[in-house]
Amino acid sequence: VTADVVELLQQLIRNRCVNNHETRNAETIASFLDGSGLGCEFYEKVPGRASLVTRIEGSDPTAPSLLLMGHTDVVPVNESRWKHDPFGGELIDGYVWGRGALDMLNLTAAMAVAMRHAAVNGVRPRGDVIYLAVADEEAGGVEGAEFLVEHHRDAVMADYVITENGGFPLTSTTGPKLPVIIGEKGYARVTLDVRGVAGHSSMPHGADNAIVTAARIVQRIADHLDEPQLQDSWRRFVRSMAYDSDLESALLDPARFDEVVDRLPDGIGPRAHACAHMTLVPTIINGGVKDNVIPDSVQVIVNVRTLVDHDEQAIRSVIESAVGDLIARVAITVDVQAGATESPVDTPLWDILQQSSASLIEGAACVPMMTAGGTDASAFRRAGAVAYGFGLYSEKLPMSTFVKLFHGDDERVDVDSLGLSTSLFSDVLFRW
Ligand SMILES: [Zn+2]
Q1: How far is the CA of 2 from the centre of ligand 1 (A)?
Q2: Predicted confidence (pLDDT) per residue in 266-278, tens digit
Q3: In this structure, which residues have their CB less than 5 angstroms from ion ligand 1?
């Protein structure tokens, strides 16, 4: 089984599906599943970008269904910085190298191997188990997950979903802690139209220069920080990590959280910080017309990442309090592109992931974690599913290493981790 997952992953990497041409990976997976008795369906919104769906029927049509979802596209590379060919899929000293080895062709392959294994061995879960190898995750899923949820809901929708990423072991004195990604922040684009009065740049005394006002506003936005919002999942995470008692109590105290967040091990400080705040980041600025004209208009774009209870009104009021008395000089447009999503922790799928993990990694305990970025899980949460990000990784891929390689140079995965993830999905299927 481990040989199967290594070989399939190598082929998926070599297919070079850089957020395009995912049909190649869908076909590779279809030929891998060929002969198992599983029937494959292809769905595509755009030619060449097919997603593949297959299904094992459950014995009880009223039992909840499970979707194993892996994306088939990858992000681009800067080839000159890699030690080995990023699309070679080479197996070197126990690691498979290449773009997608961790994000997330490893899990996409492991899920396919688990499905084939279950089908060949006649495993019959109680509820349906669906496998989806989906295109276009890396550009937001418009040609993939979103399209399928909207137009082929019957083919892909399930009560529960497992997708990327999670499962990288965190340091703890009480055994390996494996984060299950239960939610993702939301995303909004705020446009600030900063106004001034046009004039001749030869006489700046008393002028109202929109660039100067915009600079002050940008600084205020960069300096703004709300009181942290510590959610239930965060409290549960902290309590299960067995940090020393002073760190633990500070991490649970909104008044002390920001001063201790950088003491978190495994490099999770920035993520924990992001998941406790609405963040505001100025990312684009446009303004000025001519080098001898005092500008009367500047546009500042602020990328806002929201928490679960933040709507447009909440974004507006945070922007207003950041900008302060300069608010009269600004027109604000808020474009909420996606709200944050979060799944509950007390579910049957959580219990199965906990049992399966503990049976494969001694003493392992699942802990809930939010992520600041986005994945296809959000499309399924919005449609009503409970969705978690999870896989299993060996000690060779602790979170600190995982984060460095994810979308980074020299992306690679060790064979032990591939075996663990495959065993996990097989075991989950068996217990479902
Ligand atoms: Zn991914």
Answers
A1: 22
A2: 889 999 999 999 9
A3: 103-104, 164
